[in-house]
Amino acid sequence: MTAMLVMAAALGLPGMAHASTPSVQLELCNQESQSGVFEITGFNQHNNRTTSPMYNIGGRRCRVISGWWWKMDQTVSIAVRRNSLNIQDFHINSDNRDGSTVRFWVQ
Q1: Has residue 47 been placed in a domain?
Q2: How far is residue 54 from each of residues 33, 37, 57, measured CA to CA in Å?
Q3: Which residues pair with 86 in a beta bridge?
Q4: Would you list the DSSP string of 28-41?
Q5: Cα–Cα distances in Å, from 52 out to 3, 11, 68?
Q6: pLDDT: is 16 or 51 the higher one?
Q7: What is the C-alpha separation between 71 and 99, in angstroms, rounded?
Q8: Does residue 7 sit in helix, strand or coil?
């Protein structure tokens, strides 16, 4: 088992978060037909308030924000810039499975 974990780490394969608290990754889906630039602000898996890099997401497309883990049972703010800045809040429920991906549809 240890050899498999070492090999997975060496190959850069995705795995579970090494987290201080239960956490999830987010998948952001752009509900609009126009592309946008998205950014997430909230508490990470180590309970530190942080902001993700900005990600371009095409119109009516989704993107998993891999490598960024967000603590469960909190509200995150998602900022999206198209013609203007729009900020929406989404709650990450505590009943999600630790290490899973949660999808949010953003207007």
Answers
A1: yes
A2: 19, 6, 10
A3: 80
A4: EEE-SSS-EEEEEE
A5: 32, 24, 7
A6: 51
A7: 10
A8: helix
> What is the pTM for the complete model shown?
0.82
pLDDT score for 20: 78
* Phi, psi angle pair for 35, to nearest 5°: -60, 160
- The conformation of residue 92, written as its DSSP 8-state character, comes to E
* Domain-embedded: residue 43: yes
Q: Is residue 8 part of a domain?
A: no
Model confidence over 53-93: pLDDT tens digits? 999 999 999 999 999 999 999 999 999 999 999 999 999 99
N residues, the chain: 107
State pLDDT tens for residues 17-30: 556 789 999 999 99
Q: Confirm whether 80 is domain-assigned.
A: yes
Number of domains the chain contains: 1
What domain range includes position 97? Answer: 15-106
Tokens of 21: 């608290």
Q: Which two tokens stand for residue 8?
A: 């997975």
